[in-house]
TrEMBL record:
Entry protein name: TRAP transporter large permease protein
Annotated keywords: Cell inner membrane, Cell membrane, Membrane, Plasmid, Transmembrane, Transmembrane helix, Transport
Transport listed as a keyword: yes
Organism: Leisingera aquaemixtae
Intracellular or extracellular location(s): Cell inner membrane
Membrane topology annotation: Multi-pass membrane protein
Coiled-coil residue windows: none
Residues covered by the TRAP C4-dicarboxylate transport system permease DctM subunit domain: 20-431
């Protein structure tokens, strides 16, 4: 019914249908997403005749000609350096010392270190791989079933795009013309809320099934352990401290904070003797592979957005949806369903560049704050990282452990449900994402 209404509103023809069919077919054939988006965009523009082919090259260039986008490779490289220097292990030591007094201490520590890693790298896949290698074997030794241990790491790593600084917020800010620093500030409370929801879920599951025992430590012993871990690893927190202070104080842009974090992390690695010049080629190649996935998608999103705008698809979508119902609560729920469904089958970056320009006018139409919309969108897409069939984090932890993806996904269901609760709270309670913002953005 919605599709029919959209078709009547925009008068869609084969210049729209054929590129869409081509995009779906290419994705099904495992063609890289950037190539599928590019082929669909070029086909749409050529068939419609609204934009000359000579303008597509310029559009591709302008799609990535943004200073803010430089922060993406910098944060990715920071995460790689963090692992190479062993500083990520210091995060785990501190997190374990913080939670060792509880019965599910190491499970909680795993979730906390995911959040700590997220506050530096801004990448969920990097967090899942790094934390998974450090913790999954020990989680199993502590009494957790292997599939559940994998699900716990996969869920905790979702905070990679939800806790600032986040690559996803840089991209959606670029697509919609919103300051990344503003989005980082708005995402702080929602990101922590997601982290807490995963922590609470793990504690409840541990209470129900007694995965992990312990928690009989006295206050004095706990304080001593915490003091020792902080004394031996306090310097690891210099990097996230620089990032957070620099961005949230306004002294550094996200790009400048990322560059500073890279330099400081490298210097610390040399000082500690855990980083050598011979490590650089592998680090740079690893970071380049991740960037090679993200940046072409952003580049080809520009001609696609132009093609959709010329055809009036975003405006037609708003007219079609509001023609079915004008209840803001129902429309918000519809957007969440679309985002979660999209997050289940495609990664965050293509979802942002395709769906943000389409859904943003609908959010504007019902009076939703644009910052709140961005936070809701990224958080809803984050749920897709642990949801089949293409939950990225499920594949990452399955790849490093050999555990069945279906078994991991089944154990991830409680985390999905609690994350969905947070998504609904963000969507229907604006202050969650606007409380920390200046009045101009509220």
């Amino acid at each position: 019914m919605l599709w029919n209404t959209l078709n009547q509103t925009v008068e869609l023809g084969w210049d729209f249908y054929l590129p869409v069919i081509m995009f779906v077919a290419l994705i099904a054939l495992a063609v890289p997403v950037w190539a599928a988006i590019g082929a669909a965009a070029i086909t749409m523009l050529v068939m419609s005749g609204d934009l000359p082919l000579s303008a597509i090259g310029e559009s591709l260039f302008t799609g990535i000609d943004a200073f803010a986008l430089t922060a993406v490779p910098l944060f990715i490289l920071t995460g790689d350096v963090l692992v190479r220097t062993g500083l990520s292990k210091k995060f785990l030591d501190v997190a374990e010392a913080l939670t060792c007094w509880t019965r599910g201490g190491f499970g909680s520590a795993t979730v906390l270190v995911c959040g700590m890693f997220a506050a530096i790298s801004g990448s969920d896949a990097a967090g899942a791989a790094a934390v998974g290698r450090m913790t999954i074997a020990r989680l199993v030794e502590s009494g957790y079933p292997r599939p559940y241990a994998c699900a716990l790491v996969a869920a905790g790593a979702c905070t990679g795009i939800l806790i600032p600084p986040s690559i996803a917020y840089i991209i959606i800010g670029l697509v919609l013309g919103i300051s990344a620093s503003t989005l980082f500030l708005a995402a702080l409370i929602p990101g922590i809320a997601i982290l807490v929801s995963i922590l609470v879920t793990n504690i409840i599951m541990n209470r129900l099934y007694t995965y992990e025992t312990g928690g009989n430590m006295g206050f004095g012993e706990w304080l001593g352990n915490l003091g020792h871990s902080l004394k031996s690893g306090w310097y690891a927190f210099i990097v996230p401290g620089i990032i957070f202070y620099g961005i949230f104080s306004g002294r550094l842009t996200p790009t400048e904070a990322g560059a500073t974090a890279v330099v400081v992390t490298i210097l610390m690695g040399f000082i500690l003797g855990t980083l050598k010049l011979s490590d650089f080629p592998a680090m740079l190649v690893s970071s380049a592979k991740v960037n090679g996935v993200i940046l072409p998608i952003i580049a080809f999103s520009a001609p696609l957005a132009e093609a959709l705008a010329i055809m009036g698809v975003p405006q037609g979508f708003v007219a079609a949806v509001t023609g079915l119902t004008d209840d803001p609560s129902v429309l918000i729920l519809l957007m969440i369903c679309i985002l979660i469904a999209a997050g289940c089958v495609m990664e965050t970056t293509p979802n942002i560049v395709i769906l943000a320009p389409i859904l943003k006018p609908l959010a504007d139409n019902i009076g939703m704050n644009e910052i709140q919309f961005c936070i809701m969108m990224i958080t809803a897409l984050g749920v897709g990282f642990i949801t089949p069939p293409l939950g990225l984090n499920l594949f990452v932890v399955s790849g490093i452990t050999g555990e069945s993806i279906l078994k991991i996904a089944a154990r991830a269901i409680p985390f999905v449900l609690t994350m969905l609760i947070v998504v609904l709270l963000i969507a229907y309670i604006p202050p969650i994402s606007t409380t920390l913002l200046p009045d101009i953005y509220k």
